[in-house]
Amino acid sequence: MGNSETMSDQHNLRTIKWLTYMMFMMFAMTTDAVGVIIPEVMKKFHLSMTAAGLFHYGPMTAIALAGIFLGYLADKLGRKKTIIIGLSLFALNSYLFVVGNSFAFFLALLMVSGVAIGVFKTAALALIGDITTSTKDHTSTMNTVEGFFGVGAIIGPYIVSYLLRENVDWKWLYVIAGSLCAILILMALFVKYPVTTKKTGEPINFKRTLGMLKNRYALGFSLGAFLYVSVECAIYVWMPTLIAGYEGSAILIATYALPIFFIFRAGGRFIGAWIMARFNWAAVLTLFSFAILACFAGSIIGGVGFAVVLLPLSGLFMSVIYPTLNSKGISCFPKVEHGAVAGVILFFTAAGAALGPLAMGAVSDAFGQNAKYGFVLATLFAGLLFTGLLLNWIFNPTKNQLQQLDQSEYEH
């Protein structure tokens, strides 16, 4: 009986992990395909870049607001219920794309999908703490999860490009994602999720989430996530503009610069799962963030000829930064608070994804629509990120907190 229960628990755990992997891959297919969709929307509805850019800024804003206002639901209702609620909203909303045919309608649907992603993503992030055995295992698993997100970021744009080549409307991407989502919902309904026990009398609500903004761990890792995402978005939002018209010897790399970046980022995260299980996370992040800074600074100093090689290469070094910041930020809290803190970090993540490219665009416009100056700002963000991670490595402010929670929150 004991062996049978153990085997059942292990099977259940593997199923939950794969469900989580597929969730991240599924929603990345939609969020990271927007860059391919925007040019089509601009042509069809005769929009400016600023107006069409709402397809990116709109859902990111919705994800941010859902993270901060609804992140606590994963702690209050439980991971399973919250995941199913979020996935159900996402699936139903995705099928509605085939009904309408106006920019305002599509934008409204993207905003709703952002809310849905914010709900089930915070629950999925909180769930990682429930299915791992230590804070180190948490970080390794988080890198694997984000690796599947990276795979989705490759698949989504490819599907849209394929649909367009076959003269099929881009909105059918959302039908594909919604169908995959429906399968995940059915699987989630029949899986037994771990139960997170509440250990304090403190009410689980939005007020408690706001209180986390005063916590140095939540705020520190959130600011790190904001800076990182601002740097990362510089690549897939503005790199194509920066290297447009390049005709040098690396023309093949320039042609496929963005896919190369995404492949490096996804592959690096799977490698990162192995690295983070074996090496000091603070040292790795410091080294990799310095490499990112070097790639961006080299692109500014060396010009476009260097940028076509260095900027896609930066994806390899970016790979482990966000999953590890996210993991360590969440791991600094008891499991019963993982949903709320995941929501706080998600808020800053989505804010960085919206505000970072917007600031770069504004700076570029101020200097005659020259994307180089936007990348000067992104290099400054990379410098601030490196400085923060270097100080974190030197002073190690989370050491005692993580060791204490390793003993109190995780089974060995």
Topology overview:
Layout: H1 2-31, H2 34-45, H3 49-52, H4 54-70, H5 73-76, H6 79-95, H7 103-130, H8 135-165, H9 172-189, H10 206-212, H11 216-242, H12 251-255, H13 257-276, H14 281-302, H15 304-318, H16 321-331, H17 338-366, H18 371-395, H19 399-409
Helix pairs in contact: 1-7, 1-8, 1-9, 4-7, 4-17, 6-7, 6-9, 7-17, 8-13, 8-16, 10-17, 11-15, 11-16, 11-17, 11-18, 13-15, 14-15, 14-18, 16-17, 17-18
Describe the fold and architecture.
It is a single chain. This protein is mainly α. The protein has one domain (2-192, 203-409): MFS general substrate transporter like domains (Growth Hormone, Chain: A), CATH 1.20.1250.20. 81% of the residues lie in helices and 0% in strands. The chain contains 19 helices and no strands. The protein has helices at 2-31, 34-45, 49-52, 54-70, 73-76, 79-95, 103-130, 135-165, 172-189, 206-212, 216-242, 251-255, 257-276, 281-302, 304-318, 321-331, 338-366, 371-395, 399-409. The two termini are 22 Å apart. The relative contact order is 0.15. The mean pLDDT is 91.
